[in-house]
Fold this protein.
Amino acid sequence: MSSHVHAELIENRLVIWDIDDSRKLFSSGFFGKPIGIPKPRPDEFDAPIILDLIEGYYLASNSKIQVFQEGKKTSIDRLLTLCKDQVFQFKEKLMVYTKLRQAGFVVTPGVKFGADFAAYERGPGLDHAPYLVRVALPSNKMTATDIVLAGRLATTVRKQFIIAVADVSKDDVSFVGFDWWRA
């Protein structure tokens, strides 16, 4: 897939209006979400897809899409500035998103689970995401209550809770997983 895929920046989202490009991008790694389709399957939808800023920046920086705003091409630097302004801990979240993608996971927003990301082994609609990922900085402190809340949430939705510690200064991400046992 080349960067001829046209993405329109609308506020804090990117829209791929062309249906063929939407299908290609979605089926190339479950990027985006078809508008109005709760559980899409690749090539089985006739709708534009919407991308959040993290996956949009990831795709633009890897020359998979070109971003336009009000009919004019937006530079990667301008998009980066917007992402930093709009997304809390953007650099750290992008590092984690990229590491997960490079490891072969399909990564989607995890806000409905109270996390930063949900990570799938095959993709939404094909399997359930086994992991919920929350991004943290090396300087973040977690209380016992934070850990219990995360564990309860993950257990309720039958997922493993992962903390991804993103250290921008070292360009490194460490993953810490929590398993819950009942005696």
